[in-house]
Design brief:
6-stranded mixed β-sheet, about 280 residues, alpha/beta
Length: about 280
Amino acid sequence: MKPRKLVNEKFKLKDMPTRSDKGVDHPSEQIDELQLELLRAQLALFKENKRAIVLIEGTDTAGKGGIIRRITRHLDPRSAHVWPIGAPERWEQSRHYLFRFWQRLPEPGELTIFDRSWYGRVLVERVEGHANATEWKRAYREINEFERQLTEDGVILIKLFLHLSKEEQYARFMERIREPTKRWKIKVSDLESRRFWNGYQRAYDDMLNRTATDYAPWFVLSADDKDYARVHALKLIGKQLKKHVDLNRVNLLDPQVIAAIIDQFGEDVLRDDLVQASHGQSD
């Protein structure tokens, strides 16, 4: 089952399976290829001075961190930023909740990834009582206006929601408890949030229905199978970025660098495609 794209439609998470009826073949090999494509897309963003945001939401243990690690593994860290979003600092609480996100928007040529996001106002703050009803109901309009401003200003905005079952979340909590290298991921707040499971499902439905717009659609991925979610998340992000940049203008080695390598070491050290690039077939 491919990721579900949502734009201005009625949708219920319970109607979408959390596990695809098909697995993925050779996930490691696919991820390696997709990571190279993401690197090329990132270099194209930099070359064309464009800005992109990848926003990932989902319940605790849904796999946000695992996907982000695979997105960023081979990216140029100078123009890629990851923002893990938790509770606002005390000084931020005296400002509008969107203030801290304005501070983290990408510069020209940058790719920014949000591990959770401004949707906290209509998710954790709503469900666990940190915002009153007037505040979180108003936030849908504020978020839509915020995202419209971003996209009209040229920001490429890609929003992913990872759809996980309660049973799989339990299994992943148990894995973290039993595996010493993963215990650092467990927080009291994560465990307590299971008490609010039904409230979160209602909040997710409202979020997806009220903020899936033509300029900022949501993509919902089944997340019970980690390999499936990772492969399809990388595919989706690469596909969306390639709509806005020209990969044909990108070389992983700059033509001037290739020419210098040939001058220093000879053409024998390069593959044929790089030698051709040095003769001007790619900008």
